[in-house]
Amino acid sequence: MDIERHSPSRHTPSRPTIAIVSRGDAAARRDTTAQTSRFVRVFEALAAAGIAAQPAIYDEGFADAVRDQLLGVDGVLVWVDPIHQGKTRAALDPLLRDVAARGPWVSAHPDVILKMGVKEVLYRTRHLGWGTDTHRYDSAADFRASFPSRLREGGPRVLKQNRGNGGQGVWKVEALPDTAQVRVLHAQRGSMPEDIPLDTLIARCEPYFGWGGCIIDQAFQPRLPEGMIRCYMSGSKVAGFGQQLIKALVPPPPEGPDAPEAQPGPRIMHGPEAAQFQRLRRKMEDEWTPQMMATLGIDAPSLPVIWDADFLYGPRDADGADSYVLCEINASSCFAIPDETPAAIARTVSARLQKVG
Question: DSSP letters of 291-348?
């Protein structure tokens, strides 16, 4: 693919350049343009801010060509899921680290993702106002020894592999009375409840200790059927909200001609000024994000240009106000986004480029 290159000396051009990395095949790398990309609104916002952006389609089969392309720009924005059609970021992350070490800044940097964009963040930040009853298992032996008693004593649990997306490796687990069996429901779309021996579930989850390194165990939130709020962030500022009724981990409705369909609701997007989310916005900007940064050792310039925090409704307080429980942070591939968010991304990119000169 013909692209504009900068010289290795990396003189600052009149228009700074950004590459947007996403996964695709050789045909997509050859044919994708800013106008045909699914990130077209982001390309348009960057152009309006005076930033030249180009698509950088990635696959392991032509990783060297992608590396050369990224070394010719000033900054790199990455939208690549942890797991996609059986492929992981095992080769991409070292490539991005190498590119970042040679000059261009990368968002989100793989090392930042490993701090905040994995399920372990739920354990490391469990003491914050968004936390709940959360445990971490560091080995298969630890999981096998500790999880059964916790399940019996603590009610339904949710197990989460450390790195994943699309519900992969996320399980609701409920002990069945007077039996060694458990009722499980995988969060991946199309899954149905199963009654299986607890040992079968444990064996099924043990491979998660490979690439991901740990399993996170949270108490199931009974208000899950009321929906999820996605808080979109650009750097340390809220860039919008998404609200959605979800199907994942919600048992299907009873069968019959009058039964409602078990379908996730559409995600309704809102701008950062949406009145119903201002309490959550204040907590994110003024309390939880600064506390997360201090806990994880992340400075403001290293926060991803775009990331999101997914919240479930927790118990109401004495005045009837909602509390919020963090169920996931997405920092690898945060998309789709509200209409207001591309402009927020462009503002954050402009600020980062000014800092790096």
Answer: HHHHHHT--GGGS-SSEEEEEEE----TTS---EEEEEEE-S---S--TTHHHHHHHH
Instruction: Decide: helix, strand or coil at residue 137.
Output: strand
Question: pLDDT tens digits for 90-145?
Answer: 999 999 999 999 999 999 999 999 999 999 999 999 999 999 999 999 999 999 99
| DSSP β-ladder status, 324-330 and 307-313 | antiparallel
DSSP E strands in 4-132: the ranges are 17-23, 52-58, 75-79, 83-84, 87-88, 105-107
Q: pLDDT digits over 27-46, tens only?
A: 999 999 999 999 999 999 99
- In one-letter notation, the amino acid at residue 245 is L
pTM as predicted: 0.90
Specify whether the CB–CB gap between 249 and 188 falls below 8 A.
Answer: no
> 53 Cβ partners below 8 Å, 6+ apart?
17, 18, 19, 20, 34, 42, 43, 46, 47
Pairing of strands 157-161, 87-88: unpaired
Given this model, what pLDDT does residue 265 score?
67
Around Cβ 132, how many Cβ atoms within 10 Å? 18
CA distance 113 to 96: 12
Q: How far apart are the first and last CA of the chain?
A: 28
Matching residue, tokens 């350049």: 17
Nearest-10 Cα torsion for 188, 244, 79, 340: 170
Assigned token pair, 244: 């959605």
